[in-house]
Amino acid sequence: MAVIKIHLEAESVVSGTITITTVTSVVPTVRRYTATVVLGNILGGTTTIPATSFTGDNGAALPAGGLTVPTSSGYYNVYVNGVLQRSGLSTLSTTSLIISTALLIGASVVVEVVNFTSTASSTSTNNIAVTTTITD
Questions:
Q1: What is the pLDDT of residue 4?
Q2: Cα(131)–Cα(136) distance, rounded to whole angstroms?
Q3: Distance (Å, rounded) from C-alpha 14 to C-alpha 118?
Q4: What is the rounded distance in angstroms from the CA atom of residue 49 to the CA atom of residue 70?
Q5: Which InterPro entries match (predicted)?
Q6: Any domain includes 38
Q7: Residues near 103 by Cβ (< 8 Å), separated by ≥ 6?
Q8: 105 three-class SS
Q9: Is 2 contained in some domain?
Q10: What is the number of structural domains in the chain?
């Protein structure tokens, strides 16, 4: 018995639009810490100020390990007596700020840490039509 096959051609046309709406939010979080350099902070041409020597914006003393460090999307600035210092002269960790020079006793040091949190959400709406024509 022979098999009969039907041979048809189909052509589809896709038309319409897809609309994508994205809402992005970037929120900065700023922390500022203030300390005064004392004799014990200076050793061998380097100034190391422990976290416990700093106060926060609210005036409260920080605990050991209480400094905020920037995330991969953040940064920090160091001001000595109100003057912004060059990048690379200091190292900030949760436990201390190390400045690669000996500062004067009594100098005011301010650390400003800025971190960013971002979120994004997208929605899509499609208005697609497919028309298929079958011919023999």
A1: 82
A2: 17
A3: 36
A4: 18
A5: DUF4183
A6: yes
A7: 37, 41, 42, 47, 80, 109
A8: coil
A9: no
A10: 1
How large is the C-alpha radius of gyration of the chain? 31
Q: What is the pLDDT of residues 92-114, one digit of tens each?
A: 999 999 999 999 999 999 999 99
Tokens of residue 50, six digits: 């422990």
Specify whether the CB–CB gap between 131 and 9 falls below 8 A: no
Residue 96, phi-psi category: left (phi > 0), alpha (psi -120 to 50), beta (remainder): beta
Residue partners of 58: CB distance under 8 A and separation at least 6:
none
Structure tokens, 41: 């902070």
pTM of full prediction above 0.90? no
Which range of residues forms the domain containing residue 99? 26-116
> Is 51 a domain residue?
yes
pLDDT in tens, 17-62: 999 999 999 999 999 999 999 999 999 899 999 999 999 999 999 9
Give the model's confidence band at 5: pLDDT under 50 very low, under 70 low, under 90 confident, else very high: confident
